[in-house]
Amino acid sequence: MAIRIHPTAIVEPGVEIGDGTSVWDNVHIRGPSTRIGNDCIIGEKSYVAYGVFIGHRVKINAVVYICTAVAIEDGVMISAHTVFTNDRFPRATTPDLTTLRSSAPDEHTLPTRVRQGATIGAGCIIGNDLEIGRFAMVGMGSVVTRSVPDFHLIIGHPGRSIGCVCRCGEPFLRFPPGEVTSQTHPDLPCNACGHHYSVRGGNVTELSPAQ
Questions:
Q1: Does position 126 have pLDDT exceeding 70, yes or no?
Q2: Main-chain phi, psi angles of 165, to 5 degrees
Q3: Taking all residues of the chain, what is their mean pLDDT, rounded to a whole number?
Q4: What is the dihedral of CA 22, 147, 68, 51, to 10 degrees?
Q5: What single string gives the DSSP state of each residue in 159-175?
Q6: In whole angstroms, how far apart are CA 198 and each of 62, 166, 186, 192, 208?
Q7: Are the CB atoms for 197 and 177 separated by under 8 Å?
Q8: Are 131 and 115 in contact (CB under 8 A)?
Q9: Do 156 and 189 lie in a common domain?
Q10: Fewer Cβ neighbours under 10 Å: the N or C end of the chain?
């Protein structure tokens, strides 16, 4: 399938874009070393920095900011107005305020990885030096400051786990407040699709084969 790039989009030299991917209006993708897989959607007015990795069949909605050192695996959904970060203590200048600091990666640049199948809701802010787990779901407007386990549902400022979600996106378990790691459920089905899971100490294991 052909790559579709809107005439107003800026795609710099050194960017690799896979077959079937659509880049919409006023997107800016920095090069070099940025890789975007097959069958992705990069929504209007989004920014993708240099050195970013995006897998196959990733949906990025409008006005998303993806900075250097972010890796996004296959099948991820990133909703509108999500912002990634890569520096915990940024400054514009040197301490004496006389020189702008370089925007190039350095020892303060910290990575973020979004694992396959995860969803990040609209208006989220994603911290750095962390992972968002496989098929996890981050609720709209959340601020993620630490790693998110596989299949967990996260909401709030800062984000906290309130339950588990299925591959299909439907919740199948709600955690009582303060009891995430105490939960033990040998076999829990998703009422929407019938997929089965085991939950032990907050860790989620799939019992059904992937459909």
A1: yes
A2: -125, 150
A3: 95
A4: -70
A5: TEEEEEE-TTS-EEEEP
A6: 36, 12, 5, 17, 10
A7: no
A8: yes
A9: no
A10: C
